Amino acid sequence: MNIKGKKVTLRAMEKRDCEMVREMFNDPEIENLVVGWAFPVSSYAQEKWFESHYNDNTNFRFVIETEEDGAVGIATLTNIDWKNRRATHGIKLANKERRSKGIGTDAVMAIMRYAFDELQLNRLDGSWFPENEASKGMYTKCGWVEEGVRRNYIFKNGKYRDLVVVGILANEYRNLIEKNHYWD
Questions:
Q1: At residue 25, does pLDDT exceed 90?
Q2: Considering the entire predicted model, what is its pTM?
Q3: Sequence-ordered strand ranges (E) for the chain
Q4: Would you list the domain boundaries of the chain?
Q5: Residue 20: which pLDDT band, with cuts at 50, 70 and 90?
Q6: Angstrom distance (rounded) from CA 81 to CA 86
Q7: Which superfamily does 3-180 belong to?
Q8: For residue 74, what are the contacts with CB-CB under 8 A and spacing of at least 6?
Q9: Residues paired with 4 in a beta bridge
């Protein structure tokens, strides 16, 4: 089953997507903006990672596609807690040319619709670095709420960085789409 947005389709990751994902992980500009490990990833390591995460029902990774460009990034629902109905969400777009065109916003809206309406989750968690204005703007537009700051939480590029913790509840998402008529 593919997940449809207005501009994007979120589909299951295929082995053929490993190179695009590897290039994103190896892009220093992208990795500086996102939380997580920053180390070079080989084609072999990327394929082994893909094989080890196949059929994982607590971590979903979707390829973001547009009709014009094909695969342009990934959107995730990870650490799914089926009992407490929550998960962590993240997104990466492959290069600058694809940003600021509504692709990320549409991918977030589509992943929320899938998480809240299809999977019946109640909460999504996320985070960003305070200086990542693009993520802040996108997620704020999508109804996400800043819940706090974890001080000196992430060590990246030789220094400790704060991490803004955010979340959205299912009822907040439903209120948002009722107000902005996103899916009409």
A1: no
A2: 0.88
A3: 3-4, 9-12, 60-66, 70-81, 86-93, 123-128, 145-156, 159-169
A4: 3-180
A5: confident
A6: 5
A7: Gcn5-related N-acetyltransferase (GNAT) (3.40.630.30)
A8: 13, 21, 24, 61, 62, 63, 64, 91, 92
A9: 9
Q: Give the whole-angstrom CA distance, residue 31 versus residue 142.
A: 23
User: Which of 159, 86, 160, 88 lies closest to 127, judged by CA?
Assistant: 88
In this predicted structure, what is the pLDDT of residue 98? 58
Alpha-carbon dihedral of residues 138, 23, 90, 126, nearest 10 degrees?
Answer: -90
If pLDDT is split at 50, 70 and 90, which confidence band does 26 have? Answer: low
Helix axes 43-52, 18-26, angle to 10 degrees: 120
Q: Report strand pairing: 159-169 vs 9-12.
A: unpaired
Mean pLDDT of 31-50: 65
Q: Are 111 and 89 in contact (CB under 8 A)?
A: yes
Strand runs (DSSP E) across 29-158, as ranges? 60-66, 70-81, 86-93, 123-128, 145-156
